[in-house]
Structure formats: structure tokens, C-alpha cells
Give the backbone structure.
Amino acid sequence: MSTYEVTRNAVIPAPAADIFPLVNSFHEWAKWSPWESVDPAMQRSYSGSESGVGAKYAWSGDRKAGSGTMEIVESAQPQSIKIRIEFTKPFKAVNPTTFTFAPAGSGTQVTWTMTGENKGIGKLFSLFMNMDKMVGTDFEKGLASLAGAVAHGKTGS
């Protein structure tokens, strides 16, 4: 069975304590997630904890957005957050995802990693699509938006 890993990182000019809450609560993802604008009519629901371990988010959208759930399974403020992402459409997959926050000069290096297995239709899909390139581009957009959301939050504008 083949597995893959997609990792991107960026240094955000803010302390981890300012960035961490934007990832630790799915309610905050609307401010920066690269997937929020894929389908404007996407249905979203939140359950479980408000933030941290047990926080859950479910989405259902068009063909491009697909559907699935996310749950924070580990939260160690302000160093790391582990999320279990389960896609149900367009194909079933479970993708463990981790965000880590490490001091870097006057800012924080945020690393976003997602792992997965290529099996079933996902394996067929992987023959035609480069997961690193496809998902990595989304991660790069997301990290840039996360930096923007932190800066926006600090100015209060």
C-alpha cells in the first residue's frame, strides 16, 4: 500500500499564541482556510467542543468541495494540533493532519502536514494527480491567509 505526505510551512510574523487559536477552532477557519471559498453554497455544521480536542466540523458541498468531517484529536497549546479529516465524497479517505508551531526569529514557523494512503479509487486518482502539488498549493494559500488573518486580528480593523 502506498502512502503519501504533503507538508508546507511558512514563517508568520506573530507569536504562536496569536496564531494557534485560529487553527484550534473550526469557527475561525472561515477567516483563512483555502477550502472555504471552493463552494459558496457549502453546508457547514459544528459540534462537540467549541475549540480544542473534541471540536468537530462537517461540510457538504458541490463536486469540487465534496463532503466530510474534521475533528481535533490532540491539542497542545501553543505547539501542535492534530486533526482527523475524513472525506466521504468524492471518495472515502482518512487523512491525519498536523499543524505545528515553532519559534522562528521574531515570528512562528507554522508547518501543515497531511498524510494519507493511496487505496481503492484514491490509488487510481493518485496515478493521474500529484497530491503534493494539488494539496500543497491549497496549503500554501491557507498559510498565506492564516498570516493575513493574524495580522488583521492584531490591528482590529
User: Anything to note?
Assistant: The longest helix spans residues 131-155. The longest strand covers residues 93-104. The radius of gyration is 15 Å.
